[in-house]
């Protein structure tokens, strides 16, 4: 089982690389068609916009805000993802407690709001930009198509990993029953000799084995959820950090810093809760925390380094960022709705308490609503 779980990350890395390379090829082909490059009437490429405002465009002030944003976002991300991991010492915040379920529901709402209110609209804006030729970008909804494919691919990986795990355990169980000398399993002895008491004796052992197997399957599922969720969050964090680092618009950066701190804090809490339930070792937890905490600051630093050569209105940048955002949105939608919210709300804890269900519903609405409000500035 430990040898198979890293394959999930490999699959998604390869998928993102394929999306990036294919988008580059499409952008190059689109640029080679001058007759289709006329911008639509609803906008002007690279002109106007927020950056054109004289009071907002200031390189020194923008640099100062970015240098403040890097440690602030790093601190918020680290605190958010580390809080659930430190909750084992607080009885009220343990994974089997009601308060943990409410906090996780709130964080899941933040992740859901991130996908619907931030990542998906960004992808629509990028792939419908007037800087792109009308063919093919204005003739087909690439954002929705790529988001749908990403959600289906996430489902496929989730399902196949559980299938391989179940088959491996089933084969091991059959081999264990037959033994070294080909002895028949206990059920065959019962059918052959009619000793009913043997069946009664095997029931507790079988029930115990089923419980252990169910726990292992759930643990594997939790680990798959962590890896896939972190992949989607990392992609979006690098993209938004790159855009912020390359921007010189003070009016855009100032509210974005506060919004990103809020976003990283509560999204980190959702990821941290998943990491806690995955029961990773200290080294793996440290790696996951490090990648989540540093991707947005590293994206900002990369944007600072590429300020003179990177243009967020260039066709290539729009296509690559738009497609990556679409894939990240589809992944976050699936993970938030299926693996986080549906798994908890259909589970025995919330199904056994209507009051806890309603409180968790309210927490989800608050988390998603908070991210929706943040969409006004970020």
Describe what this molecule looks like in 3D.
The chain has twelve helices and no strands. The chain is mainly alpha-helical. It has one domain (about 5-30, about 60-170, about 185-375). It is globular and about 65 Å long. The model is unreliable at about 1-45, about 45-55 and about 185-200 (pLDDT under 50). GO terms for molecular function: zinc ion transmembrane transporter activity. Keywords: Ion transport, Membrane, Signal, Transmembrane, Transmembrane helix, Transport. It is a multi-pass membrane protein.
* Order of H and E elements: HHHHHHHHHHHH
- Quick one: overall form? globular
The total of helices stands at: 12
Roughly how many Å is the radius of gyration?
Answer: 25 Å
Tell me about the biggest sheet?
A: none
The proportion of residues forming helix, as a percent range, comes to over 70%
């Amino acid at each position: 089982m430990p040898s198979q779980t890293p394959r999930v990350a490999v699959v998604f890395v390869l998928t993102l690389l394929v999306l990036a390379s294919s988008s580059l090829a499409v952008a190059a082909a689109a640029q080679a068609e001058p007759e289709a490059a006329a911008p639509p009437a609803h906008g002007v490429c690279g002109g106007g916009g927020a950056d054109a405002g004289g009071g907002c465009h200031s390189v020194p002030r923008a640099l100062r805000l970015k240098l403040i944003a890097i440690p602030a976002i790093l601190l918020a991300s680290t605190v958010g993802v580390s809080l659930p991991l430190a909750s084992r010492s607080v009885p009220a915040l343990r994974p089997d407690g009601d308060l943990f379920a409410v906090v996780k529901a709130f964080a899941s709402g933040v992740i859901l709001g991130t996908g619907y209110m931030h990542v998906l609209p960004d992808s629509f804006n990028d792939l419908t930009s007037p800087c792109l030729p009308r063919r093919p970008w204005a003739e087909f909804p690439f954002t929705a198509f790529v988001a749908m494919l990403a959600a289906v691919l996430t489902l496929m990986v989730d399902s196949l990993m559980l299938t391989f795990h179940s088959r491996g355990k089933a084969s091991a169980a059959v081999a264990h029953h037959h033994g070294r000398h080909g002895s028949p399993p206990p059920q065959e002895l019962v059918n052959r000799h009619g000793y009913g008491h043997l069946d009664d004796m095997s029931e507790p052992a079988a029930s115990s084995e089923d419980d252990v197997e169910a726990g292992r399957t759930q643990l594997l599922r939790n680990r798959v959820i962590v890896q896939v969720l972190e992949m989607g969050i990392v992609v979006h964090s690098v993209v938004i950090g790159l855009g912020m680092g390359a921007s010189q618009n003070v009016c855009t950066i100032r509210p974005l810093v506060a919004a990103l701190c809020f976003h990283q804090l509560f999204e980190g809490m959702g990821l941290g809760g998943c990491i806690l339930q995955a029961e990773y070792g200290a080294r793996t937890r440290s790696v996951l925390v490090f990648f989540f905490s540093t991707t947005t600051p590293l994206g900002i630093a990369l944007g600072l380094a590429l300020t003179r050569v990177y243009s967020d209105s260039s066709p290539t940048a729009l296509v690559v960022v738009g497609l990556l955002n679409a894939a990240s949105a589809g992944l976050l939608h699936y993970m938030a709705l299926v693996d986080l919210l549906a798994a908890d709300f259909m589970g025995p804890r919330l199904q056994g308490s209507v009051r806890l269900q309603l409180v968790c519903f309210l927490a989800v609405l608050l988390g998603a609503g908070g991210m929706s409000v943040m969409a006004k500035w970020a």
